[in-house]
Amino acid sequence: MGVVNLKDMDTTPGNENPFSPPAGWTGTKDDYITLLRSRNRDSCYSQQIYVAARQRLNEKNVVFFGPFKDIAKRMLNSMCT
Fold this sequence. Notes:
Structural class: mainly alpha
Radius of gyration: 11 Å
Number of domains: 1
Strand order of the largest sheet: 1-2
């Protein structure tokens, strides 16, 4: 993983951020939730997820877009409450 912009999160498969499934991914919304849960336990992804949550807590705008934007936003918001 290289440098990741943690303010603009594209949830389209194949993008370089912790909220994007791998390229070619065809999972359902339930599969996506499972993917996010597993990434939250993976040290490579969890650090980026926690930095994004920290930005959200500091009232910095984290924008989600793409097919799973609502699920990703709910997950991040749940970490901040």
